[in-house]
Amino acid sequence: MIKRRAFLGLAAGAVAAGAFAGWTLSNSGVQPLLLSARNNAAGEHYAVGYRLDGSKVFATRVNERCHDVVPHPSLPLALFVGRRPSTESYLLDTRDGRLLQTLHTPTQRHFYGHAVFHKDGEWLYTTENDTRDPGRGVLGVYRLQDRQLQRTGELSSHGIGPHQLLWLPDGETLVVANGGIRTEADSRVEMNLDSMESSLVLLNRDGGLLSKEQLPERMNSVRHLAIASDGTIVSAQQYMGDPADPVPLLAIKRPGQAFQHFALGEAQSQAMNQYSASVAIHSELRLLALTAPRGNRVFIWDLDSAALRLDAPLADCAGVGAVAEGFVVSTGVGRCRLFDCRHSDISAQPLQLPAGLWDNHLRLA
């Protein structure tokens, strides 16, 4: 499979630069804090926090490349989670970027790039690989005390290669995207493409299995998740089979219904080039957004009707997150964008954030 960053050279000329001075995202004038992983031109890794007007809050250099970011629900803390197969994650003070802790996995475990805090803020759950039995998914369980995370145990993800996990609105039910791919301890090489076992799993907080569902396409790797306030679950996939196969890369599980494909137009499905990245839901506007960096496209749909609202070019688009007006999208090569979705015609506005080198995900705190 072609790797995402291999598209950077092809995509660099497709982004228009711009700035939007004096602009705020909320009636109070308080800018949301955008948290993400980012590299510099020398390839060094940073955990960063920026206001959406472009002002830098922090840029903290870290040892390893990070993937997702997990803000604490009540404290000015965030965990920047190491990208597979990292054994490190970084707990930062989001007021100034001070590194509070480098979190290490135990022997024969590595991170898969995602984690979640429980709503009470005391517990953290991470997706991890058991490298004694490569691909066997576990959820590391950590307790936060005195601004330090201590591992207390682990749960089974009831699948192979768990990637992202999120909470249902009840705050007690975990949703886990098991990607279905086995990897070795220090490698990103797929070991089992001929026998993938991808699944969407719902768990009790104590690890009890509530449901496990799979898509018909065996080589569709369930990877990223977004959950609406009504409990609707959306999953974005990466297809590991023949690039010519016409496989939809979005799936949805509405409350009380089965996990099934989200209706996509043929043009949008083909434009994704078998790879989707970040996905987000705007519960108030009932919209769903997806980045497809290999196709250099951003998509927005009506969550309820599946009507396409936007199909727009954005080179090497990366993270996506919901704000009051719509969605913020980062990119690996150009200006980040705000997509204002409050009117029938969605408009795109460039942000004054640093251009390019943004990694896969962003979170707004």
- Strand arrangement, major sheet: 3-2-1-28
Largest sheet: 4 strands, antiparallel
Provide a count of the helices.
Answer: 2
Give the CATH level 1 class of the largest domain. Answer: Mainly Beta
Distance between the termini: 34 Å
Q: Examine the secondary-structure arrangement and name the CATH architecture of the largest domain.
A: Beta Barrel
Give start-end ranges of low-pLDDT stretches: 1-27
What shape does the CA trace take? globular
Number of domains: 2
Strand content: over 45%
Instruction: Tell me roughly what share of residues is in helical segments.
Output: under 10%
Compressed to H and E, one letter per element, the order equals HEEEEEEEEEEEEEEEEEEEHEEEEEEEEE
Mean pLDDT: 91
- Annotation, overall tally of beta strands: 28
CATH topology of the largest domain: Thrombin, subunit H
Radius of gyration: 19 Å
* Helix/strand structural class: mainly beta
Give a short overview:
By secondary structure, the protein is mostly beta strands. Helices cover 3% and strands 49% of the residues. A hairpin with a 6-residue loop joins strand 26 (337-340) and strand 27.
Overview of the structural elements:
The protein is mainly β. It folds into two domains: 1-56 and 263-365, Thrombin, subunit H (Beta Barrel), CATH 2.40.10; 63-214, Methylamine Dehydrogenase, Chain H (7 Propeller). The protein is built from two helices and 28 strands. The chain has helices at 8-11, 266-271, and strands spanning 33-39, 45-51, 56-62, 66-71, 77-82, 88-93, 99-104, 109-117, 123-130, 136-145, 148-160, 162-167, 173-178, 199-204, 209-213, 220-227, 233-239, 250-253, 260-261, 279-282, 287-292, 297-302, 308-313, 317-323, 326-331, 337-340, 347-350, 358-364. A four-stranded antiparallel sheet has the order 3-2-1-28, with no helix packed on it. The radius of gyration is 19 Å and the shape is globular.
